Amino acid sequence: MTSRRWAPLVAAGPNVRQLSARRLATRTRLLDAARRVFVDRGVFAATVEEICDAAGFTRGAFYSNFSDKDSLIEAVLLRESDAILEMLTELAEHAGSGSDSPASGICAGSGGDDLGEVLAQFFAAQPLGREHYLIHTELRLAAMRDPGAHVFFNEISARQWSRMADAVLVTLRRAGLEPTVPTEDLVEILYGILERSTVRALVEDVTDVDLLARRLLPTVLAALTRPVADRSLPGSWIVTPDQ
User: Fold this and answer.
1) Alpha-carbon separation of residue 116 from 104, 106, 123 (angstroms)
2) Distance (Å, rounded) from C-alpha 65 to C-alpha 18?
3) In degrees rounded to 5, what are phi and psi of residue 139?
4) pLDDT score, position 128
5) Taking 80 as the threshold, does the pLDDT of residue 152 lie above it?
6) 34 close to 51: Cβ distance less than 8 angstroms
7) Taking the mean position of all CA atoms in its chain, how far away is CA 234?
8) Which of 106, 109, 133, 128 is closest to 118 using CA atoms?
9) How is 95-156 classified by DSSP, letter by letter?
10) Nearest to 174 by CA among 102, 242, 120, 126
11) In degrees rounded to 5, what are phi and psi of residue 156?
């Protein structure tokens, strides 16, 4: 990857809505292939030729959709972020409606049904696993190694973390709970535990990537939340350090 400033978020890639169905299908296959190759080979080791081969296209098809490898990386990053934002939006809209997540009931004996529902919703919204962890680690490393990429990466990250904080807060409120620390800090803690659980499982070849998280999250969330004193408070209320 060359060292250059990645494009601003609003200008990243072509306007997908204006692409023909055929070109959109080609672009989607290239993005899918790039994701697989980045997971298997790493962002820096992966070549345009490998991505084209994985997608079943020529270099001409690649350069009809992306100006270079950097623009492809931008598009992969943006698509990953959009997928997470969509899941977080769904989480906020359906919080409290029940969940079939494996995390349901993990709080038995550790804080009640409300806390168990919050954790079930949070687990359900996190696309953690080997591929998700590796692709996001690779994209983070690409941004860290290229000083010019910071603006683009940070803009996407800020949007994602803000939406995650909103979703967690809404989920807590519907369970009758509120954070005792700033919501953004709570999200950092919860996601950190989930990520560490994934890393540990991958390194130790454990099938259940949520094993450590299920053990730690109930205690941590119980310690960092409290029952809402006034349920009439607006859902956008966020605790601040001096409250």
Assistant:
1) 6, 6, 11
2) 13
3) -70, -35
4) 62
5) yes
6) yes
7) 26
8) 106
9) TTS----TTTTTTTTTT-HHHHHHHHHHHHH---SHHHHHHHHHHHHHHHH-GGGHHHHHHH
10) 120
11) -65, -45
Cα 38 to its chain centre, rounded Å, is 17
DSSP annotation of 5: P
Nearest to 191 by CA among 242, 141, 154, 157: 157
3-state secondary structure of 70: helix
What phi, psi does 19 have (nearest 5°)? -80, 150
Q: What amino acid occupies position 173? A: R
d(CA 175, CA 167): 12
Question: Model's pTM, two decimal places?
Answer: 0.69
**Tens digits of per-residue pLDDT, 83-128?**
887 877 776 676 555 444 433 433 333 344 567 777 766 666 666 6
Cβ pair 137, 116 in contact under 8 A: no
Element containing residue 178 per DSSP (H, E): strand 177-179
The amino acid sitting at 170 is V
129: left (phi over 0), alpha (psi -120 to 50) or beta: left
Cα 52 versus chain centre, distance: 26
